[in-house]
Amino acid sequence: MKDPLLLHSCCAPCFSYVFELLREEYDVTAFFFNPNIAPSSEYVKRLNEMERFSSLKGFTLLTGPYSIREWTLQVKPYRFYGEGSVRCRECFRIRLEASFRKAVELGIGCVATTLSISPHKNAGMINSIGSELSEKYGISFLEADFKKKDGFRKSVEMSREHGFYRQNYCGCIYSKLERNRDRLWPGSRKDEKGG
User: Fold this and answer.
1) What share of the chain is helix, strand, coil (3-state, %, to 5)?
2) Which of 15, 37, 88, 195 is the most exposed place for a label (fewest CB within 10 A)?
3) What is the 3-state secondary structure (H, E, C) of 71-108?
4) What angle do CA 107, 111, 116 make, to 5 degrees?
């Protein structure tokens, strides 16, 4: 019998490869908790793709509340710091902490996240947060850098294979403005890398 694992998912393109990798060893439950995603239509697109993949593969998909206002208030002090900064660190912490709480609620003894598959995400930062929360909640955290060993490339291939909608920005409005180089956005500070 496989050990249960709660896998925080940001989107189906990132989840697909990580799920296939981990399902050999774990009984994976997906947890879609992403209050950072804006606008709400983008959130719905990503959730719909997760639901479609869940129906196809037969894994359990749980969703957390979509609380964009609460998320925005928590990261507001860091909004002008760019991707990879303390702003992302706070966002990771919010989503991972909710994942640990959900695991406690469900009696699942291990948590992981798909976040490290992105070439834009600092796996060291993610794993550091996971390690802190593991100690706080008394639940294991599966440290990983899923982009390694061609993980990101394989996730892109699987996305094409399944016809997933694949977004072109992290998810939050700040990353969207930075990606689009919106001239009305004051830009991002280059200090406060946050880890």
Assistant:
1) 50, 15, 35
2) 195
3) HHHHHHHHCCECCCCHHHHHHHHHHHHHHHHHHHHHCC
4) 165
Domain count, the chain: 1
pTM equals: 0.91
φ/ψ of 187, rounded to 5, equals 95, 175
Q: What is the pLDDT along the chain (195 residues), one digit of tens a residue?
A: 899 999 999 999 999 999 999 999 999 999 999 999 999 999 999 999 999 999 999 999 999 999 999 999 999 999 988 888 999 999 999 999 999 999 999 999 999 999 999 988 999 999 999 999 999 999 999 999 999 999 989 988 999 999 998 888 788 988 888 877 655 545 544 444 444
At 7, which helix (H) or strand (E)? Answer: strand 3-9
